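Human: My hope is that you can spare some time for a protein that puzzles me. I am handing you a single protein, as its sequence and its fold in token form. Could you go through the record with me and say what the backbone is doing? Take your time, and here it is.
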Amino acid sequence: MAGQRTVGDTEWTSPWVQCALVCLCLVGMLGEAAEDPGAQWVSAYGWIQTGDKLAASKLWPLAIGSYIEADRQIKMLANEHPTYEPDVIDYRLEKLKEDIAAAQKELTSGEHDLMMKYLDFIESFELGKKQRFENQFEDSITTLSEARSILDDLIEEKPDEIESAVKTQHELLDDSIDWLYSQVSFKRQSSRVVSVSDGYDWGSTQFVKESDLPSSGDPVQPNGGLFPNVPLAGVPVAVLPNAADSFEQADNEKPGMKETQSGESELNERGGGSGTAMRFRMNSKSKVAGGKISGETE
């Protein structure tokens, strides 16, 4: 058709749209490996929905930019995965061609700069996402921050119209950048090595020498402080009062209590003498009677 140019198999009536599409196609081809077709489709369809929302708000420059990006991604998907939903792919490409043509008719001559700036935002946004998924967090922060700056410039041009239309994209950018900063900070903290040394190398094998071991002839002073009534080898233990002797002596001192067996020596102040059978009550109910403890068997 005279006066029209063709990019791929889609006809564009505006040279600005043609230029924008060529730039985006080149960006997408630079080092971009084949991805999961389902993920690629979700990304492309997201730009279709964004374009529809912007067209409903009569933001034609931004709508055209979204449609162009969707067209680029779907064509890349069809090229990398030719067997993935070919009927759906063909329908969407045809529908995008119609949507771009319709939006183009509404585009005024003074809005091409706005469209190109929005395409710059899309380029930075897509590159930042790619860097994020490749774990290039610091590069992704730089790229997405640039995309956010471009989006802020767009909002300043038409704040009443654009701000609400791109609110979702702005929030997504903010969340992504915050998440990336947290990952970079965590990575830096994890890489710090805390070294605490006491002058001894615990990480290497140490061979113990015989001279390092305690000698069997070293004098050891026994200590019975924990169990004072337990005799230690070679240590004389003083005679200590016996609790049973104390109970027996207390009973003998009660009024009416007499010594009942002749020949027994009296209990001394410290307890029974040597050779004397000590008698004590087993419990509080036992009583001394008839020279024997009640309940004591013959």
Observations:
- Residues 1-34, 257-270, 293-298 have pLDDT under 50 and may be disordered.
- Residues 5-190 form one domain.
- The longest strand covers residues 5-7.
- The chain is about 55% helix and 5% strand.
